[in-house]
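thought: fold this chain, then report.
action: predict
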Amino acid sequence: MVKLQAKKIYLQVTEKVIILFSISNLKMTPKTESLSFPSIILAKVSDFGQLVKLRLTLLVLFSAVAGYILGANVFLWTDLFFLMVGGFLVTGSSNAFNQIIEKETDKLMDRTANRPLPSGRMMVSEAFVFAALMGITGVIILWFFLNPLSGLLGSLALLIYVAIYTPLKKISPIAVFVGAFPGAIPPLLGWVAATGKFGVEPGVLFAIQFIWQFIHFWALAWKLDGDYKKAGFRLLPSAGGKNKSTAFQILVYSCFLVPAGLLPLMFNISGYVSAVISILAGGLVIVKAVKFYFSCDDKDALKLMIAAYLYLPVILLAYVFDKV
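observation:
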């Protein structure tokens, strides 16, 4: 009872600290000075949404929820709620710390120059407090409201993404390999949140998302190679950058999607309907990857990236609705 009250007090205090700190650090510019207070608050909320990379965070959350549903024998809405809140906070914290570390490099890239930190709309101290509170609160929720293994996975994902992957981006393309580990944890986390244990089945979900990330990220890195070079990021797998070698490696990983997508059928996670859907979805990615390999064109890289982006939610939904 005392522990539960302490948790409630912690969450209430955390919420008030975030609100007070955010309001006290509102940075007035010629644009914001002419706005009403509610408009300024809305602008600040929008900046926090950019800081946590809201769309990316929601996709991560989607994977975790799918993992929970696939692993749960007894569906508990309270557990799902704590998974969503804890997962959102840990992922948002990771993204926020990433932007704090990359503030100066973000100024150099067209697509990131208008983010809250490089544009000067948000102070680093403000972002740091926000990120730290999110990370700590998220891990606490996963650990105590679900189970210790969930908290451990959340902590590991946060640590690898912030402390290893982010600084490696300027050093070596191996950063993509390292970043694929925390990126593949969400469905594993969802399964562990539901069952309280590891196993082959969550490992299968981890493997699918692990492979998928190389295709999606390298296609994105190809499209944004010029921007990444401005910041000194080395993310394409070939030393030559945008060449046939890079396109071939993307094609090879694309071909792995089909056999990987059949693993849930083999391990009795889902049925034949989802297996067929995974073959079709993986086949579409392969077709786009083949076309991209022969053209090495930015437009085909974009089409491949979109196909890969759609692949993940499609097959996860298929697995969920075809759960054995």
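thought: worth noting. The chain has two domains: 1-198, 200-324.
final: tokens above.
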